[in-house]
Design brief:
The structure holds two protein chains of two kinds. Chain A is α/β, with parallel strands linked by helices. Chain A contains 14 helices and 24 strands. Chain B is an alpha/beta fold. The chains are: A alpha/beta, B alpha/beta. Chain B: This is DUF779 domain-containing protein.
């Protein structure tokens, strides 16, 4: 089926024509009254306007967050958990609407938002509602009279800067653990994809005490800097790219606060020849694993954008893999059959096209796609790229930089040592995939690849219960999993003597 | 900082935008980003905003403003010349031109073939 465009008469969801910032539980116009246009990548048409906020708006949001933080931090974990569960329930009741809104905002296929983005976000709130209640501090009996108590405390007010590739899911990854741990938030959505988060916040606004979650929109240079460099935040979390990551660390160093950074990767997806040892479900699964580079139009930090295929079955594997890629359905993101929709923005489209150009210049062979996609009709103003397969060498730029498009670069390897050498020959270390029927092979590869997550005989699963984050230049810290609560908590140590005798030193 | 063999240049449209931004923000600096989202995009900041590190590589000036790239990234990009262009866009990050509805874009041309593979 094809969902009607949001805003049309048959649509199941509509956006407002203009949004405010969500500050202290209220919708507020930006202080200096400036807005910017927000287009949908599906057609390229503007569908709403968004506050172009500045430092003054960030300060208002921080005022609201600081006013709320003591009460929120002291709210019993059972109550905080109930609120997170209510947010999840509200999202579940409105799943279809949110999924269509997200597809319209970002260009990703509604097939994906219905089955992955939004259900994962819902589960994420439930996961952190659960783990915060199970979390306990520790008690160490140091000797008969001396006890060390370790108690978790919230950081206070945190700043979070959200990327545009999974606007709602990436916001949830940051919001859920921070709220669970008792922090108040000032969040800045990406300027390419602000509206779906605002629609979601509108939907859940009545569930949260005023000031606990504040959303301020605008550009990095104006609102982002005012937030990240602000002495009134206790931590900043950012997902994006390396130069901005450095700038954010630099700002954080001025205030001596912690950062978590997720800065992308160039993830290898490694296929050993025993994938084809039998003509069975596992063979099919490995081919699907190859095609995963096209998920979310390749706009995933862990896009398996380098495929390493063992020489001994390279020809057979690539024949079948290219057949699979050829059957990917592209086009209207609101069609539930569409697998690859629109790139999120015009500049993203242009960047991908620049990489298709350099791949050819470097001498890589185009095995599939390689061009902008012209879907026709209303979609012609949108930003579409053909799923593309390059064949080349790991030293090429298309093997070394995250293109963030539906583009995979394929090369071959001889044996496990060779595969590890190529897999690790990258500046990044966020994700990786290993495909083999041998437990020995998958374990050795999994331990040998320098990346925060090695999907083994699977790819692109993002459960709340598994830690996600990078080695090398891919960033600092982790997201997801109970252990992420620690990124949003202080440790209070009470070191207590129950002895009534003096130490005898003075 | 080390001197580079790869070169950087700017299109006339990019040079015009650099001049506009300099008028508004004073001296500028460019740093080539990497990684996801808006990685691979050049970031433009007020000159004193971004700390150039000991391992950054100076590639040259564009529109009279210095352009740097991280040292490890430079090693992997050294076989290409960079041509900084400008397009309509909404690129995130903290780059100064984004609020103008414009985005610098790095185009490349191969100047030597990488050695091995």
């Amino acid at each position: 089926m094809i969902y009607a465009n949001p805003g049309s008469s048959d649509a199941i969801v509509s956006f407002k024509s203009q949004y405010g910032n969500f500050i202290g539980g209220e919708w507020k116009a930006p202080v200096d009254g400036e807005y910017f246009d927000n287009p949908t990548p599906v057609t390229g048409q503007t569908f709403c306007s968004i506050p172009r906020s500045k430092a003054a708006d960030i300060e208002l949001a921080l005022d609201a967050a600081h006013a709320a933080k003591d009460a929120w931090g002291k709210t019993p974990v059972a109550e905080r958990a109930v609120i997170l569960n209510r947010i999840a329930d509200r999202m579940e009741e409105n799943l279809e609407k949110i999924a269509v809104a997200e597809a319209w905002e970002n260009g990703k296929p509604v097939r994906e938002t219905l089955a992955a983005d939004i259900p994962l976000a819902i589960d994420h709130f439930r996961y952190f509602a659960g783990v915060i209640r199970a979390q306990e501090g520790t008690i160490g009996e140091l000797d008969n009279d001396t006890v060390a108590y370790h108690i978790h405390e919230p950081l206070g007010v945190v700043g979070q800067i959200i990327p545009w590739n999974f606007p709602i899911l990436m916001a949830t990854w940051k919001i859920a653990p921070a709220l669970a741990a008792g922090n108040c938030i000032v969040l800045k959505p990406a300027e390419q994809t602000p509206a779906s988060i605002l629609l979601l916040v509108e939907m859940i606004a009545d569930l949260l005490p005023a000031g606990v979650l504040n959303v301020v929109n605008g550009f990095g240079a104006e609102a982002g800097k005012a937030l990240a460099s602000n002495p009134r935040i206790a931590k900043v979390a950012f997902t994006g790219e390396t130069t901005t990551g450095r700038l954010i660390m630099q700002y954080a160093s001025e205030n001596i606060i912690p950062v978590t950074l997720e800065l992308g990767g160039k993830s290898p997806n490694v296929f050993f020849d025993d994938c084809f040892a039998a003509d069975d479900g596992f063979r099919e699964k490995s081919l699907e694993g190859f095609a995963m580079f096209a998920l979310n139009q390749g706009e995933v930090c862990t896009c398996p954008s380098r495929a390493l295929v063992q020489k001994s079955f390279y020809g057979d594997f690539m024949d079948a893999a290219l057949d699979r890629v050829g059957r990917i359905k592209t086009g209207n993101p609101l069609d539930t059959d569409t697998m690859v929709g629109a790139q999120a923005s015009r500049d993203q489209l242009e960047k991908i096209l620049a990489y298709l150009d350099i791949g050819r210049q470097e001498g890589a062979k185009v095995l599939a796609g390689g061009e902008q996609l012209e879907p026709g009709g209303d979609l012609s103003g949108g930003f579409y790229v053909q799923p593309t397969v390059f064949e080349g060498r790991n030293s090429m730029r298309i093997f070394q930089e995250e293109i963030f498009g539906p583009v995979v670069s394929v090369t071959d390897f001889s044996d496990m040592d060779n595969a590890l050498e190529i897999a690790n020959d990258t500046l990044y270390g966020l994700g990786a995939g290993v495909w083999s029927r041998s437990a020995h092979t998958t374990y050795r590869m999994g331990r040998g690849i320098q990346a925060g997550r090695v999907w083994t005989n699977c790819y692109h699963l993002y459960p709340a219960h598994a830690a996600f984050g990078g080695y090398k230049q891919s960033g600092i810290g982790r997201e997801n999993h109970q252990m992420m609560l620690a990124h949003y908590q202080q440790t209070k140590n009470l070191l207590v003597s129950y002895s009534q005798a003096p130490m005898g030193l003075f | 900082m080390t001197e580079a063999t790869s070169q950087v240049s700017a299109t006339p449209a990019a040079e015009a935008l650099i001049a506009e931004l300099r008028e508004r923000h004073g001296p500028l600096v460019f740093h080539q980003s990497g990684g996801c989202c808006d990685g691979s995009a050049p970031m433009c900041y007020p000159r004193d905003e971004f700390r150039i590190g000991a391992h950054d590589v100076y590639l040259g000036d564009i529109g009279g403003e210095p352009f740097y790239i991280g040292g490890a990234q430079y090693e992997r990009w050294a076989h290409t010349n960079l041509i900084i262009d400008v397009i309509e866009g909404r690129g995130s990050g903290f780059s100064l031109e984004a609020p103008e509805g414009k985005r610098f874009l790095t185009r490349s041309e191969v100047c030597s073939i990488p050695a091995s593979g």
